[in-house]
Amino acid sequence: xxxAPDVVAFTKEEEEEEEAYSDPPLPEEYSVxxxxxxxxxxxxxxxxxxxxxxxxxDFILISEFSEQVGPQPLLTVPDDAKVSGTFDLNYFSLRIxxxxxxxxxxxxxxxxxxxxxxxxxxxxxxxGDSKEGAFAYVHHLTLYDxxxxxxxxxxxxxxxxxxxHKIMQMFQExxxxxxxxxxxxxxxxxxxxxxxxxxxxxxxxxxxxVLHNETEVQKKxxxxxxxxxxxxxxxxxxxSVEKSIIEHQDLxxxxxxxxxxxxxxxxxxxxxxxxxVELAEDNLEQGVTTSKPDETGEMNPYPRRSSYTPKLIKxxxxxxxxxxxxxxxxxxxxxxxxxxxxxxxxxxxTFRGDxxxxxxxxxxxxxxxxxxxxxxxxxxxxxxxERPPEKQSNAFQASPLDSSDAxxxxxxxxxxxxxxxxxxxxxxxxxxxxxxxxLEDTPGTEVGEPMAYDQQxxxxxxxxxxxxxVSSGESIEVLGTEKSAAALALSESQASLxxxxxxxxxxxxxxxxxxxxxxxxxxVLSTCPSEALIPDDFKASYPSAINEEPYADEEDEGLRFxxxxxxxxxxxxxxxxxxxxxxxxxxxCCIGKESSSFLEPLPNLAPKLCDDDGVVSIPPRPYRxxxxxxxxxxxxxxxHDGITGxxxxxxxxxxxxxxxxxxxxxxxxxxxxxxVSYMSSTGSTSSDRTPSPAPLxxxxxxxxxxxxxxxxxxxxxxxxxAHPAIYSLLSGRTLIVLGEDKGAVEKLVTALSIFxxxxxxxxxxVKHWTTSPLHITDFQKWKLIGxxxxxxxxxxxLDADSKTLRCPQYRGALISRLADHRTQIKRGSTYxxxxxxxxxxxxxxxxxxxxxxxxxxxxxxxxxxxxVAARRLNxxxxxxxxxxxxxxxxxxxxxxxxxxxxxxxxxxxxxVLRFDYVPSALYKI
Amino acid sequence: xxxxxxxGGREPQGLAEKSVQTLGEEQTQNPYTELLVLKxxxxxxxxxxxxxxxxxxxxxxxxxxxxxxxxxGEKLFELHAHTQKIKAIVAFPESYACExxxxxxxxxxxxxxxxxxxxxxxxxxxxxxxxxxxxxxxTVLQRLDVWLSGGSDLCVWNRxxxxxxxxxxxxxxxxxAMIELPKNCxxxxxxxxxxxxxxxxxxxxxxxxxxxxKRLLDHQxxxxxxxxxxxxxxxxxSHVGELIVWDALxxxxxxxxxxxxxxxxxxxxxxxxxxxxxxxxxxxxxxxxEKCVFAAVGKGIYVYNLQMKRVITFxxxxxxxxxxxITKVPNRQLISCSEDGSVRIWELREKQQxxxxxxxxxxxxxxxxxxxxxxxxxxxxxxxxxxxxYSLDLTGDLIGHSSAVQMFLYFGEHGLATCSADxxxxxxxxxxxxxxxxxxxxxxxxxxxxxxxxGI
Lengths: 925, 456
Known about the structure:
The structure holds 2 protein chains of 2 kinds. By secondary structure, chain A is α+β, with helices and mostly antiparallel strands.
């Protein structure tokens, strides 16, 4: 029985959203709703949601409605018996398979001479079983099997969770992800199906030849002029074989002419680009050996063809029920099957954890998107998000709340938005009970607003529908299925459009233009019967099994070099590299509810791809020996002079503004943007100068935050001069951390890194590793000349060994809030968030300061620059409440904002170094 | 609660033996709080020449000429053609170029070639490589619409690169510098000699001749700098520190100064003690305004008043090393750069003094030795009749180059470009002003872009 609160939860959500609109400044989603879970009445605590369920955590189930044994579970992701526990997978399979509303009718439609394949879109359903305590997002799909009844085999993939709320909230995302997985399966299936058909055709052709010969022989033998019954039988057999050939040819043609026009459009691809990327990656990473044979086999069919010897097919080929049905793996081609499994694992990881965690993440990311002007300053995700998914980050699965996984939410390309919305919509429409009036409405909206689907409306439908279905009091809720009359009508009209590929470009254009209205859930192939078969189309010599192959090839080829390809595509799409990025514009208003993943720009910008290099973390290097060497030198020196501090001032210089040709290359590039760096003491010995910028924002994400937060907490507690050090960073002054012990230095750098504003949208200006061009071999020279100390005006120096800090004084109030050594915060991640909060606040101040017209321009004619400057200062002090050095921080951030805003799209931000002539102080513990 | 101990505000600057005036980290009068590093050269950068209001060219030992946008620091063109060091570069004055509506620069390299470049498209217009010796200097005579190249001889060219005429071999030395003088004359510094040459042209402008008018042999050593002060005067400075001010019309000596140590009426006793080796007082560079000549003498800078015919103020050790370039900029400011890699900004201050008190002897008594670094300046002890005391105060130093700063180019409001042996050009900008400019650009962009609807 579904209890009433299940309904409440959903409508409440809707109210919340309404509120969010009326009160934009505070995102309502952040407020914690009163605890009113169905279990509240049972006295359970809010975190014991799982108590009702018989499984320990969310999992994915793939089931099949077998024509032989009925619904049966095939596999679960993760493939671990512990996960599903005592949960009755058989029972649940029955449940989920029984709600497949789609008409998967294939066969001889009335009035049609040949069997027809329906290219059925998947249906997406939410169902719940409160008895089992399980709720599921169920994704139905059908795969083709020549031996199956009606050529189809229904499958479904279900995301099963004990939290109904989660399923509801994540419906869109789940739908997007599962569509990708499903599309992958289906593509493999079409390929396999086409192969099977070709084999079958060969068999049939062979059989026909044999039969033909036999009849000829009979004719010759039979000179009496009348046919024996045997001959008539043979003739009939021949006729039926010929009919069968035509039927199979027709099927092959149908499967080949699957509306790929949709898929050809890159931004319309539900899954291909990514899977292609993965494919490419797979080839690279796992070595070509594993996937190659399979691939080449597919793509270069000749060897296989030639090796296939046609079999004679018996006249009465009866459907035998005792034969073994193909496994899913066989149905889908091993390669695609593994791909799909990978995707499903990814989905499982992505949606791990509590829904509130997922939602909060989504919301913050969505909000972050709104702050396009300022978010480059302190947001790490900003850079990470836009990277294409990388295999390496899969390695991080340690914590269930791993955000790097959550990022996959975002990585998915945007285009699905349009599809899903409509699918969503049409699925709502399709609920047969009371859809009539809504059906009338929808075509209008669809045509009228092709791009910006009004999500609000959809939700409206959804709710209405939900209420309707829930009130029926059944234990299975049906959110919706696919087919809708309206969509069907539309699709039929379009179905006549697809031509056998006039030219790729034309098809693309067509696809683009059509795309806005062709979000139909079912595409019925043209009703025109396929009498006129194009010979090429079904010749076995056709280079690929099915028509999609060439395109698949293109994809493969192209995506191995994805940056360039993406650009090409952008050009193809009319020079506008990101039409999809425009899409979300309207939907941002619905952020509260809608997935933020829609708002992600496509990861198709070349510079961002290049940026990947900057994010790669470098494995630790052998350090010991060099370390010792340095120590000798170091102590040597300090014993001479006893002033380590003064030494420190010399050290950074070579990095900073060096002169030798090689350093010219690295140093000044970095000089403006390396704001934290530590002197590598191994400078003298390590000959490699591998650039390893910013391993800080490696894929570790959440874990890094936690660590950085912990280190920062320790730092502010340990070092009484934390404030001026942080001030140095916030005001754009390079801070150099020196020390003998690499670990200690690294900890400090990690700790301080969270205070470093980014100079651009690229890597964090933190340099973890610098090898000095002057090296320690020049140590003596430095001692003698000591002239590099003149660069000390540009830097602050934190000496981790002698625990001293040399930097300008700080007297503001801001940083005491940011880094209170008596803070009650205990956890690193909490502190990290605390810092992020304050920094965001700071960003908004900087934004205000930067974009306030009257602070920078005269408000009346003839106003002097001095008067404007005075107004500016007053604003900083009085309005923003930033005394003394605090205003410097905001001024620096404002300068970064300006530079970023004004940056040339081609040349990027010019590497300006700003500094002040301010005296430094030496702080000691 | 004593949470930390604030150690003194300032650290001792540099090594204290130098009597170089230093400025603390706090430089309130130094406007240059932003810098752009311009990278493009692979060897010593020796020359910077302005092209127009916003562009300049740089050249040096790598044979590359780079054109830069002074506003953005963007490299506009990189001109490759010289196979060896560039020895001289000159920009055609704008009015000259106006006829062809393009900006041109001339470069002379050690590869014995002179190339004319179009600055607007970065293309080579002409190339002459028929020189017998390296061209060491180039001058454009705007009035005559010709340009001169100086090496072992002097050649006169028109802008189409036709050789109009040339001198014979002048002396053993090459021409190291040339300036234009009135009456179609040119002064050329050749070793110790200053040769006055005159150009003659037929009325239709087809025939040209250049001939020697006079040789001035007053310098004891090689002439290192030659500048034009006004239409009527010019000045030369030599390796042994002789500064001679000449009449530009009759080429007579107007003033002579060589005793830089004694020029300030120091006790002869002190002078002997401080006797410098000759190279330490070589005049590397001269600059002038109408009233004064500013001389880079050894490590010091001296201000020589033309009217009073004496040094009015100086900084004997303005830098740690030889001063290579000096320029007077508006607001009575002087900029100098040196082999020590620093650029310093000085302000020439005048103070009216009612009574001419003799400067305490102890003040100068410790010259050149470990004088307290905070000592403000060396004030010229002036004749009692004068009531004006001049001083040269350090108002800022620009530190960025790690090697000798060869020269710099003052670019008005855009800032200051410095080039150095460290292969870099640093463009120093007024941070405040840049910030304001960026704000203006930002609001301009805001107005234009419709995607961002920001309320004002």
